[in-house]
Each structure stands twice: as C-alpha cells, then as structure tokens.
C-alpha cells in the first residue's frame, strides 16, 4: 500500500463517523494532557507552599519550564522527520515523560524531573498530531473538522487533570497528585501502542519525497513567511493566555472569595472550567462556522484568530474592572465568567492555528511544521513568565489591564496578516487539488 493511498484504506473504518485512528490519537493525547496539566496545576502551589519559593522565583521557574516544554519539539520534530519516524518518537517520548513525572515525588529532583518531562515532550508533541492529516483522503469531507474533534477529545484530559491531580495534591499531599499524573502518562503510552494498527503508515523522509510532491520555491517562501507571521502573533498572544495557570491561579488563592455556602471551592478546581467549556462550546462554534461556510460567510482562519485574541482581551479587561472595584475580595462567579470569555477566545485561535500549520506543512516535514506551531508556545511562555513577575510589582487590576493590552496587540497583528495567510491557503488548495488529480490517475 502506498503512502498516498493509505488514507483511503484507513478511512473506510468508522468510529463515531471518524477514522478509529483519530480516537487512538486523541486518547493518547488526552492522557498526556492529563499528566501535563495535572502536574502544572500543582506546580506553582507546590513551589510556593511546599518548597517555599518566592512568588517571582516560582513564576520564573514556571515560565521557563513551560517554555522549554514547547521549545524541545523543534529539535524533536526534526529527529522524528529525518530519523526516528513518528511512531517511535511518540513511544520514546512518552516513556521519558513518564519517568519525569514519577521523579516529581522527590523534592531534590525537581529540576531533573522538569527537564525529563520537557525532553520527552520534544519527541512526543510534534509526532502525535502530525499523524491526523494522514488518516483522511484529501477529498474526505470529515478532514476539515478533524482538529476540532481532536481538540475536544484532549480537553477531557485537561478537565480531569485539576479535578484528580489537583484534588489529590491539595487535600492529600502534592506527591499524590504528581503520581497520578505519571500514571496518566503511562496509560496514554499503552493506548498508543495497542492501537497502532489503526494509525497511518510513516510518511517518507524529506530525502525520499518524490520530485512531483516537492513545492515550488516561491510557494514555499510564501507559505513559510505566512506561518512565521502567525507564529509570532501567537507568541504575543500566549504572553497573556498562559497567565491562566500562573497569575490567574495565584489570584484565585488571594483575591477571590471562594465560598459557596458552607463549602469553600478548592482553588485548583477553577482550572477545570477551561477544558469543560471547550467540550461544550466547540460543537456550537463548529455548527456556526459550518452554517457560515454554507452561505459563503465563514471568516478566514486569520480573521477567526484575531477575533479570539480580542475576546481574550475582553476577559482580562473584565477582571481588571472587577479587582479594582472588589478590593481583593471578588466573588468566585467573576472568575467563572472570565473562563467563559477566555475559552471562547481560545477556540477561535488555538485549534484554528494548529489546523492551519498542519494543512500547510510541506511534504516530508509534517512533524517539524507542527513543532514550529508549538515553538510559538515556547516564546509565549517565556514572555508570560517575564510578565508574571509584574504581578508582585503592580496592582492586580493594573496587571490584568496590561494583559488585555497584550491580547489586543496580538489581535491587531493577526488581522493585518489575513491577506498573506489567505494567499498561502489558496496556493495550498491548488496544490492539494493537483495531488488529488495525480491520485485519481493511479
């Protein structure tokens, strides 16, 4: 079976009207997300409450760790495309990450554990979602919604993480939460290995790509520049977006009234609102975009992403007003409202951007291109860590106002990039049509 004809054979089987391989991929990613967010939910609290780090030190460690987590996929993507292949990269990366999560049980090994998780992720993260596109033929109508479906699936892990790992860590001891995260990573690895029969074959390495599949130099340059621009905009956006697990978590502890009658809501539970809302809001947005597409009114990807950045900006602006008027004792419902707006904005920008990078990936460079998308997270998390140090240096209301400004800047830049991205998409559509015609003649 050739690599080109493989998607047609795989797509003949259905799992809830999707190829069963998509279920294997998002279940694997779901447990990886469970382990990552389970540990990340506890990390700032663990450093400030157990290890007695100062707030600025803890924020810097948090920002550097999350940034490194998204930097290593650049190297891992190249290794996957050129040498290991995507399947072996996923298996090796997941095994290393599992070890890292269990090392979190030792306070003395904190930095070694964080390094192991980041290194394993370098192989895992770009190699898993880069397999999605190969599950579908180019003319498969389900292909357009694959990343939305995938994004919903992995957010189940994000929902469970603070509820399981956060609750265990906060009520029974931090190491119980970290241990649960490690078990989740092992489950993801087992699902991937036992479900490998449903996954697509390896793509050819760059040196093995047929000349007919290689992109003309001018088209490649336009595509790379468009993706570079999108990546830089997302990097700015993440400077504000990544505060959800950093300073927003701190505000939930010190600036929020978490009482619900006689019950005090655990601060880690608020981290579950975002993935819960992703699960419920995604079908509504997909229905809306499908309806708009039917009437020719669906916004372009860059316009959607700009809208998302503006919505996130409005969420931070709301918190700025609330904190200024509540004098440090805001009702917990305001944070719930923040996450509602925040999640709507996220759905307009993050899954859209991931799908855009996947569609525009040159032949033989799928994992590397996906890694480039996550590299924007590297820069964005470094920026978020640096911005997080302002939390103790200015009032909380002023800090939230600055974050709103950062998100507005990202939205304006994305809107300006729309024509360049539209041209790259149009050229890619032509190339896809040409490859599909080649398939039909064989």
Automatic annotation (TrEMBL):
This protein's UniProt keywords: Cell membrane, Membrane, Peptide transport, Protein transport, Transmembrane, Transmembrane helix, Transport
Coiled coil: none
InterPro entries per record: Dipep/tripep_permease, MFS_dom, MFS_trans_sf, MFS_Transporters, POT_fam, PTR2_symporter_CS
Residues passing through the membrane, by range: 21-39, 59-80, 110-128, 149-169, 175-195, 224-241, 261-286, 307-328, 334-358, 370-391, 397-417
Domain Major facilitator superfamily (MFS) profile: 21-422
Main location: membrane
Membrane topology, as annotated: Multi-pass membrane protein
Subcellular location: Cell membrane; Membrane
Family note: Belongs to the major facilitator superfamily. Proton-dependent oligopeptide transporter (POT/PTR) (TC 2.A.17) family.
PANTHER family found in the cross-reference section: PROTON-DEPENDENT OLIGOPEPTIDE FAMILY TRANSPORT PROTEIN, RESISTANCE PROTEIN MDTM, PUTATIVE-RELATED-RELATED
Protein name per UniProt: POT family proton-dependent oligopeptide transporter
Species of origin: Agrilutibacter niabensis
